[in-house]
Structures are given as structure tokens and as C-alpha cells.
Amino acid sequence: MSTLVVASGGLLSGAIGSGQIGQAHLASGTVLSGHVGNNAVTSGSVASGVISRFHHASGAITSGHVGNAALVSGSYASGSIDTNHFASGAIVGNALHAASFVSGTAWTVITEEVVSGVTAVQISPSGNIRVAMASVSGRMPAMGVVIDNVASGIQANVWTLGFQQLTQSSGMMGYSGHLGQLTYVGRSGYVVTASGGLNSGGFVGGDIIQPLGFVANSGAVVFDVNAPNLSGVVLQTLSGSIGGNQLGSGAVQSGHVASGAILGSLGGGVRAIASGTIGVNDLASGGIQSGHIASGQIGIHHFQSGVVGSGLILSGQIGSGSVGTTHIGNAGVRSGNVASGVIGNLHLASGAVTSGHLVANSIIGANSSGAQLIASGTIGTNDVGSGVITNTLLAAGGVQSGTVASGNISTYHFASGATINRAQFVGPFFSGFSGAGWWVQTEEAISGVRAIALSQSGNVRIAMAGVSGRMPAVGVVIDNIASGIQVNAYGVGVFQLGSGMADYSGYLGQPLYVGRSGHVVTASGAFNSGGLISGDIVQAIGTVRNSGSVVAQIAAPAPGLGSGIVVSGKLADASVTSGSVASGAISQNHLASGTLLPVFYLSTVEAISGVRAVCVNSGNTLMRSHPGSGLQLPAIGICRDNYASGALAQVFPTGPILLTSGLDSTWSGFPGRNLYVGSGGVIVTQSGLLSGMSWQRLGVAFSGGIMMALDMNITSGGVASPAGTF
Predict the structure, then answer these.
(1) pTM for the model
(2) Which of 233, 37, 194, 160 is nearest to 426 (CA)?
(3) How confident is the model at residue 681 (pLDDT cuts 50, 70, 90)?
(4) Are residues 506 and 529 in contact, defined by beta-carbon separation less than 8 angstroms?
């Protein structure tokens, strides 16, 4: 029968014998999912490479299915690895490139001006970033470095820590000849060394000096942004300029003395060791060798019990039975002195058998047929060797978030450039941390945002700038903690504080210090309204980010000078400026001969209240000037205080005169206008003069005061002057 005889549909199910259809009889695509029986597809039935990720059911791949080093950079979902997955001391590739602000993240700011190349930046009062400049106090301190060219209004990456290899070919920076030297914020914002390169002119007096890191090679910098020196001056000591009188008691410590610097009586130079001053506690263990002891100096009383060991006593010198237990020194009985089998179980002290005394396979477990030596439940975490638990012992889905112990994910599990959530929050102490030395407790209640110091008892308490025993600060606490409680203390990080915990409005970008009561304060205002006073220990602890946010970075306290240390010979030319002299500190005795004071004193003939123009009457006494009376002109100056009749009054005839708020009400809002003698001596503008009054010009108004320039030419009915005079 040929195939041409069978009609279409002529072969029914029963017409085909069992096993008659082979592989070659099936057309392409004939076998569908319903034709394959349960477990019909085995290992050999699947061709290499035909199973893709879409064939796997959810959760099908467990820890045992993942091969060694099978998880690469793209295998981790974004944000799936956080701080607790890192092992202690893990270093993440590029993670040491710490940044306060990262472009494209929640922790970002924008520029308010163009930032070009490698430039230090600060937070401006508007909350944006701009170029920091050592020569402009309003543009300091710097809180990081931008290494890109960024236009105004653009998000920028601000780096505070890490190694940066800069592009020298593009002219961004070059540090040839300055390897290992510190880098600073330059006068124009560049990252410079103390001199040379972009800082060829060096720093000048008044510049704010802030370290940024150090030079790694001719085109690389290791950044470590620090708080600026409070005084704004780099203190340098010339070689040989410190003598014995400049060193305080206890100033020279062990690390300050160079090797071989202290000479004894045999040194040939200045004898630094006084005779008889070396005692027992000054000699190191093993410091006295055989050659140091003169012959005949050791007698029988110098030997301690058991010091005469094997080989020191010759044969025949010990009588039979004369060696007792008291004659055997520590470790005097050795391996060869003990006969085989003489040590029984009663000779072994508790804990005497250690790991080195056990032979292989001598400890038997529950699966052995012998005596079970391991008690049930006695094998803990520390009894399991490294690598004992393999992938095959872990159930599907057995590794959960809580299964990964804190510190078990180390550096090499992360791809280059991985960002760790909250990794910038660094602190010396953490509540609940089990590691020895990583936690402390309070010895007093700490409320709100406070700087804290370590006390003599090893606990923490509130740091106070005005109390030397409570300084320096080692961190900041941002919680309310009762006494005797473990505490989180932070040293580095960006903190957005709760409402009412701090208010830094108007101080954006300004440095923060330890306050006199432990508050985190600016140099003045808010919690530091009284300011820091003489004798306070000044310690910078961060920068204001916004009205309720702090960029914390604990710095060492600024070095201070003791009372009376700075005398006249120590002051540089023009170093004492206006702000350096306290109010009332200069008296007449401080003025050189011939110095003119722009004031004089006369007695009053009537009461003078407030700011008034005054004249001299026929009795050579003071009275108020009046433009309607020829006998009360000309005015010879003004008084600015209240004087009773007969009092000695201070008269200002010339120069700028500052007034208390409100005393300039008659010319407030009219700076630059001419001022005249008004009725009763009141100082007025032209609008305060009436018809028929004489006109005498006193000076020119400015906000909060008057620039006195008396005109003794008195006119009637106006001032003959060029056009535009008012």
C-alpha cells in the first residue's frame, strides 16, 4: 500500500501501532507542553544554553545554587546591601571617597556660581555652594572640594575624604616638588600648598587657614577636609627659637626626645642625667647585661628562690635526699625527669588538658558507637571552624536579611564605586554594641543636641567650653539620654535635627563650636548669645548646613595662650586692630604726647538732654544753641548724653559720632543730607528750619550717626551755595 492510497484524515488513533512513531516522523513544533509527561524531561534532555532566567520560578535559586564568585557587580539590586552587611574594618573600593553631597541623590546641593577645576567650596547663606576663599571671611570655612567644571545652578559632587588623581594634562593642578606637603584652601579657592604653584604669593595676615589634605604625587591629592584654625594664622616656630624658659612643666614627653639625645656622664657633652636619679623603675626588663656588673658585686643574698638551675651545681655537691619540694624552682621538672606512667588523673589540675594534649579523633560525638564525650547543646558559635558550613548545608532561602551577621560582608564583596547607605555617620561609641571598648554610658542626664567629653571615670558627660575639666569634646549626642544609659556619640556625619532642638537661621555655612553649656553653637547668637569669653577652650565641631541641620566633624581644640604670654615685643607691626581693643581699655595715659582728642569738656549752665547742639555763653559755660537767637549762636559742637545743670559735659566738635539707636530720629532715612542747628539745639535737616531762623551747618548725616564738620558762617534765610546743595 502506498501513501497515496490513504485519504486525508484516514489514519485514526487505533490505526497506528505502539512505538511506530519515531523522532523523524514529528514535524517541527509538533510537541507542545501538554504532550510532555511528568518528569519526562531529564538532565540529558535539555540542550546546553536553552534554559534562560525566564524559565526559573520565583525563589528557585538559593544560596547553595550560587557558585564561588558567581555574584558580580550587576547581580546585586540597588540598595540591597546596607551598613550591617560589612565586616569590621572592611574597605570598600572608592568608598573612602566620602562626599557630603552627591549629585543626583537626596544629599545634594546646587552651585550659585561657576566652579572651575579643583576648587574648595562652602555653603553660602542661601544654602547653595560657592567658591571658598581664605582671604574672604564670609566665604569660609570650606566644607569640601569640587574637582569638576560646574556651571551655576547645577548639582555638584562635593568631596571631603579620599584619594583623587587629577588630570594634569588639562591643567587642573600640578604639585611637582611638593610631595607629602599639606594642602589648604587658597586665597582664590584653589587647593594649594603653603607656597609655590597657584599660591606663589603665599598667605597673608588675616587669611583663614584651613587644611584640606596632603599631596600624594605631582597630580594627586589625598583629601581630608578639616576645620580651619580659629585664629586664622599658621603658627610656625623657627629652628632654635624655643629655649628652656619657653617650655612649661611637663611639656617634654617621651615621644618628643630623639634617640640618643639624653647624655650621661660618659657622653662627653652636656650631662643631662643627674647623679643618683636612675632608680629601679627606670630600668627596662633585661636592661642590665653581664658586662654591666662589676666583679664581686653579687652575693648570696642577691639570689631569689629557685634561681639556681640545672648545670649551675656540679656533681657531688648535693647530698642524697637533700632536694625537697622547696628546692625545685618554677618549671624545674622537665619532660625527661618524669618516669613513664607516673602521672594519673588525680595529678591533673582543672583545665590542665588543652587542645595540644589531645590526639586526633580522641573526642567522640553522638554518631559514634563509643562513649559520647560531647554533651548535647554544648557546641556554640565559637566551636565551629571557618568554612565548616558550606552552601549545601543551607536550605532554600536560608540566608535572609537577619541571617547575615553584622560585619560579615567585607571589602571584596563590593564592586568598585558601590555607595553604602548612611556610611558617612561615624561615631566612636554606639549603644548596644557588644565589642569591647566601643560603648560607654552617661554619668549625668544629656538633653538634646550636646557635645560630650570623657570623664575621669571613663563615662561621658556634657562638654563645656568654660570648664577645662570638661574638655575636649569627643563627639556629639543628638538624643535625650538619662544618667547611666549607653549612648550613641557621633564624630562625623550630616544630621537633620528635630524641630526646636537647634536653630541656626542666619548662620548657614558658619562653623560650629562647643558652647559654654555644651550646646552646639555658632560664634555668637542663639544658644551662644553671650559669646565665648576669655579663658574658654575653643573647639570646632562642624558646620551649619541649614537652619536645623549640622555637618558634624569633630576637630581638636584650638591651642591657647596663657595669661601674660604675649607682651609688647611679641606683637607684629599693625597687629592690634580696632576689634582687638576692648571697650574703655584706652585712657588718656595711653596717648602719646601731642595726640589730639576730638572732644573737650565744659560745665553746663542748664540741663542738656540727648543729642543737642551747644554754644558758649558770656559766663564761659555751655548752653543749648538756638537758631532764633543771636546770643545762642554759633554752635561749637554737640553733646550726646544727658547732663544736669552745673555738670561737666563732653563736647564733640568734629569727626564721626556714633549714636545710640533712636537718637538720630530727626534725620533717620536721610543719609548724606546736611544737618543744621534746630530749635532748642535739636539737630535737623532743612525741613526742620522755620522762617526767620539763622542757618548754621553742623555736618552730614549717616545711618546711626553724624559726620561733624562745623561751619562758622551763619546765614539768614537760606544758604548761598551752588545748585544741588541741600
Answers:
(1) 0.28
(2) 160
(3) very high
(4) no
